Amino acid sequence: MLSHTITFERFQPISRGHPKIIQSVCDFREYFILTEMRQLLQAVHRIVTGVSQLDQDQGRTQAAAAARSAGMVMALDDNPTLILKLPLPMKQIGMSVHRGFDELADTITEGATSQQILQRLSTIMTRCLACHEAYQLKEG
């Protein structure tokens, strides 16, 4: 079993001047976190691709399925040991992102316009950006 203490350090990023928390993780945990972020980004790509298709019915089906795949079903697959070690604000943002994708899937299946879909997606992405601005993974 991997054992690792997560440490936090604060530093001033050059671009923003806001403190950023560096999340120190072992290779397994880093791989797990980065894999989930990659899956979220793939879902965003499939949503945008679906919304941009000429065949709107097929595009909506694709977009809704992609949004649902990034919803709470993805969060339920998370490693509980890893989740316990993450800072509470990071977990809260992550769960709000997953809930946001479920809400987006519902919005798509209820017949939202492309503009409404993209607005909701933008709101979700704002949460992703907030987390990336606040946290950075560091091998350790």
Jot down its keywords.
140 residues, mainly alpha, three-stranded mixed sheet, 6 helices, 66% helix, elongated
Summary, kept brief:
With 140 residues, the chain is mainly alpha-helical. The protein has helices spanning 27-51, 56-69, 72-76, 80-85, 88-109, 114-134, and strands spanning 8-11, 20-25, 135-139. α1 packs antiparallel against α2 and α2 (56-69) packs antiparallel against α5 (88-109).
Q: How does this model look, in words?
A:
This protein has 140 residues and is mainly alpha-helical. 66% of the residues lie in helices and 11% in strands. The chain has helices at 27-51, 56-69, 72-76, 80-85, 88-109, 114-134; strands at residues 8-11, 20-25, 135-139. Strands 1-2-3 form a three-stranded mixed β-sheet. Helix 1 (27-51) runs antiparallel to helix 2, helix 2 (56-69) runs antiparallel to helix 5 (88-109) and helix 5 packs antiparallel against helix 6 (114-134). The longest helix is centred in the first third of the chain and has 25 residues, at 27-51. Mean pLDDT is 82; it is low at 1-15.
